[in-house]
Amino acid sequence: MVLVMFPQYPLPDSCAELSPRYAVVFIGGFCDVVFGVMARLGDEFGGFLPGVPFVKAYYHWDGDGAGVFWDCSSRILSDIQLFRERYPSLPLVIVGHSYGGSCALHLCHSLSSSSAPIALVTNDPVARRQSPRRPNSVDWWANCFLSEGGGVLDVVPRIGGRWGFCSQADVNLDFSGYAYDSSGKLFSHDRPAPMFFENPDSSLGGLFDATAQWLKRVLE
């Protein structure tokens, strides 16, 4: 058995040549360094708006800090703060899955408000050590969660403290673990991509579409 460790890639030091219009930060869950479900989503992500240049980054839930003992996301926070200082006008979208979702909210509580808007996207967030209180720095928040089912592995987010419906979010999408995604597989906590791109109500867009619409309004 080969143990695969999914590497992080931080926000770039310089992106002047790319002339990006926005930045996206993906944050994986507790075991994403091994399973890489958000790492793969970040790698394959082609942007929210066709033809609009952007930059992206991917981090493990604690940025390789000591977060297994306490909420330690100082590396991610320092990278984001430095990036916002260098590019103060770029909108920022922070997408976190599982414990990475609560880490993303934790980071946003540490970021100051600025002229560049921030969108927070939480994908079935998990944590018992903090509550889903809306950060002042966040201009728009979209959240999704698995409300039932999920199979045997769903015991992990249940023990960890799944947030579920977040009353202070602008968007909440409720997924059933007994429903099938477009590929014919059941929605589950350990497969965040379907819950990012799809919607339980097929007549509406998912987190991706909702974020794209928010970003389009911001960039107009």
Written overview of the protein:
With 220 residues, the chain is α/β, with parallel strands linked by helices. Helices cover 28% and strands 18% of the residues. Strands 2-1-3-4-5-6 form a 6-stranded parallel β-sheet, with helices on both faces. It is globular, with a radius of gyration of 16 Å. The N and C termini lie far apart (50 Å).
The residue fraction in helices comes out at: 25-40%
Put simply, the count of helices is 7
Please state the structural category.
alpha/beta
Strand order of the largest sheet: 2-1-3-4-5-6
What gyration radius follows from the Cα positions, in whole Å? 16 Å
- Beta fraction: 15-25%
Q: What is the makeup of the main sheet?
A: 6 strands, parallel
Note poorly predicted spans: 63-71
Order of helices and strands, N to C? EHHEHEHEEHEHH
- Principal-axis shape equals globular
Count of β-strands: 6
Estimate the mean pLDDT confidence: 90
Q: N-to-C terminal Cα separation, in Å? A: 50 Å
